[in-house]
Design brief:
By secondary structure, the chain is mainly alpha-helical. 55% of the residues lie in helices and 9% in strands. The radius of gyration is 16 Å and the shape is globular.
Amino acid sequence: MNAPTALTPTIDQTLDELRDEFEVLGDWNERYRHVIDLGRDLDPLSDAERSDANKVRGCASQVWLVSESTPDGALRFRGDSDAHIVRGLIAILMRLYSGRTPAQIVALDAKAAFEGLGLIGALSQQRSNGLFSMVERIRRDATTAARSSEVERPGT
């Protein structure tokens, strides 16, 4: 996904789309299946990208996240996991964060977003902790990218 354009949905629009997707599903068994289906659409990471440097700490499952800066300063994220439900959570995170600027990423209240989707109450404590470990990694990458761009443009 590229940086936000007039055609790219805002984070709020993306949250509304996700909320609508979950609302049409009945119980949490159906919602879990939907999350797993979302994860099936993730592009796989290469063996080299499944490195220790890309591994997310604080997750019970194996999780790798790769962040890349786009020429216009947005960040693109890719990820993978050895657990189906976690791959689905990564897919949701990619929809929310990938293609956004560091400022947009840092400004998103992830806890409120996931509560609004009803995910917080549906996830085990261990999965919830892992989800927020992924969010913290994304936020840290965004903060690093923002600092990096400030160094590249001194005096601005």
